[in-house]
Amino acid sequence: MSAVDTASLTSPRARRRIILRKRFLRRPMAVAGLVVVVGLTIVAIFAPWIAPYKAGATDFNALLAHSSSKHLLGTDFLGRDELSRLIWGARASMQAGFFATVLAMVIAVPIGLVAGYYRGWVDTVIARLTDVLLAFPFLILAVGLSAILGPSLLNATLALGIGAAPALIRVARGETLALREEDYVPAAIANGASDATIIFKHILPNMTSTLLVQATVTIPLAIVGEAVLSFLGLGVQPPAPSWGTMLQDAQSYLSQAPRLAVYPGLAIVVAALAFNVLGDGLRDIFDPRTTR
Amino acid sequence: MPLLEVSDLSVRFDTDDGPVHAVDRMAFTLDEGEVLGIVGESGCGKSVTCMSLVRLLPETATISGRALFDGTDLLALSPRRLQRVRGREISFVFQEPMTSLNPVFTVERQIGEVLRRHLGLSRRAARKRALELLRLVRIPAPERRLDEYPHQLSGGMRQRVMIAMALACDPKVLVADEPTTALDVTIQAGILDLMRDVSERLGTAVILITHNLGVVADLADRVVVMYAGRKAEEAAALELFAHPQHPYTIGLLGAIPRPAAGERPERLQEIPGRVPSLRELPVGCAFADRCPRADERTRTNVPQLAEVRPEHLVACFHPGENGAG
């Protein structure tokens, strides 16, 4: 039986899923991105079981050691296993990436929906405030906020989430402005739907794919942001591991052990890149104009 | 007592270029189970008249007058109470079936949402009722359609789903705003059949808005002809087609193609000129500039509605069936 025959037997919902999966699998970069993202997530969640050593375990017989069978990627200036610290560091990065993005969504989507749906002065106020916040580069905003909140991973995540919100508000508002003009909105009003029903049941579900793509763009921003904040001493506090603090530590030993800067740097690049190519792929497959 | 009694209904839009009087002192009644046709060219205020009843207009619209529905004035209802009228007592079928359904929901959810909102049905009961409704609107393979998305349905089928949604709560009034305009001619007949069948079987009163006199002749018991926001003529459908009085109505009837076998078709009669801008209506009769019967009085005075034949109202200084007036 051919693929078309099987598809015609299944429900429309399942059929759409099959189409989306096919489109996705035709994009090797996106698939690679997904593999890396899933891998990083597993590493972050199961760090205690995967990492060969505890993050803070020191080996004073091997300070700034090169790769060996004992320490696959060598050790840092305190003799801490570099690979283990990278694995533990993935936790901070992924936590900051996911939770900051979730927070940004929770803040931004309702505000964007309300602004776009009601328009008028509510929208004017929200849109102008958003513009003001967007005038600050994302990292500057996050640095400023976490300086106010105080240094810790939680506060860094909060700062990144709030900092990422304005861009998302703008996206959610723009989508809402477009979607509220669809014919099904007046049709729903004519059927007695309340404003809340229209906003959350009719408009919001129509922008989920946009929001999903936006999330995959925001996560790498937050991952890089967490590294920056930790590097500056505003995020994860040493000796706790984070790719940002590892870079910070590596700074003093750049001439003796440049690899200590290369590993966390690579980790940051790979993680950010993986989310970005995944996001690009998702955007392509959700685009109705895509035919492949 | 009529089910719906609209009197002195005016709608004004405040635009950047000044006020636009879309509807001017409109009045009509609708009895239970009756099919009322409202006819007129684009922009004559037929849709605005009906949408103003349950306030479906943008905020720039100012509505005045009275619309007694079952003894309560719709125009004085609070927004909350009005939400319970919309889709429950008075429901709408719009022109655009292709886009009036939400693309991310299955047919079951679209219909079910209305049922659960207004009747508080459970999910299971709503599904059962939705299936009944799909049968009522004669959709083939209704069980399968329940789980399909709008993009999987044809235009005619979507319009049937829209009608099913509109009928979901057994409303007293169904407003059908150009329900067949966006459909193929072959499908149109089916939808009109369905509308007639439904109004007869369920006893739903129907307001049929259209620019197509053929559709009206087919379905309506009574017809209101609107021109530039005002009522030009009103009569029972048969009476109107047999004895049109207003030169505008006569012009509209002349513009219906009537191919006769074996003859070379005659050139269609068009009505000369254009609809006046609602922004600057002429002082006198709004139709004067296009009217073969216009004279001095027509250009300076607005004709009032008068009963020229039994149950037949016309707003014209020179009513009559033939050109002389």
Layout of SSEs?
The complex is a heterodimer of chains A (292) and B (325).
Chain A: H1 3-9, H2 12-25, H3 28-45, H4 47-50, H5 82-118, H6 120-134, H7 138-149, H8 153-179, H9 184-190, H10 195-203, H11 208-231, H12 243-251, H13 259-286
Helix pairs in contact in A: 3-5, 3-13, 5-6, 5-8, 5-11, 5-13, 6-8, 7-8, 8-11, 9-10, 11-12, 11-13, 12-13
Chain B: E1 4-15, E2 18-30, E3 35-39, H1 46-53, E4 61-69, E5 72-73, H2 79-85, E6 90-93, H3 107-119, H4 123-136, H5 142-145, H6 155-167, E7 173-177, H7 185-202, E8 205-210, H8 213-219, E9 222-227, E10 230-236, H9 237-242, H10 247-254, H11 296-300, E11 306-309, E12 312-314
Parallel strand pairs in B: 3-8, 3-9, 6-7, 7-8
Antiparallel strand pairs in B: 1-2, 1-4, 4-5, 9-10, 10-12, 11-12
Helix pairs in contact in B: 3-4, 3-6, 4-6, 6-7
Polypeptide structure, described:
The complex is a heterodimer of chains A (292) and B (325). Chain A is built from 13 helices and no strands. Chain A is mainly alpha-helical. Chain A has a single domain (27-55, 73-286), classed as MetI-like fold (Orthogonal Bundle), CATH 1.10.3720.10. In chain A, helix 8 runs antiparallel to helix 11. Chain A is globular and about 75 Å long. In chain B, the strands form two sheets. Chain B has an eight-stranded mixed β-sheet with strand order 6-7-8-3-9-10-12-11, sandwiched between helices. Chain B has a four-stranded antiparallel β-sheet with strand order 2-1-4-5. In chain B, helix 3 (107-119) packs across helix 4. The longest helix of chain B is centred in the middle third of the chain and has 18 residues, at 185-202. The mean pLDDT of chain B is 89. Classes of the chains: A mainly alpha (292), B alpha/beta (325). The interface between A and B is medium-sized, with 21 and 31 residues.
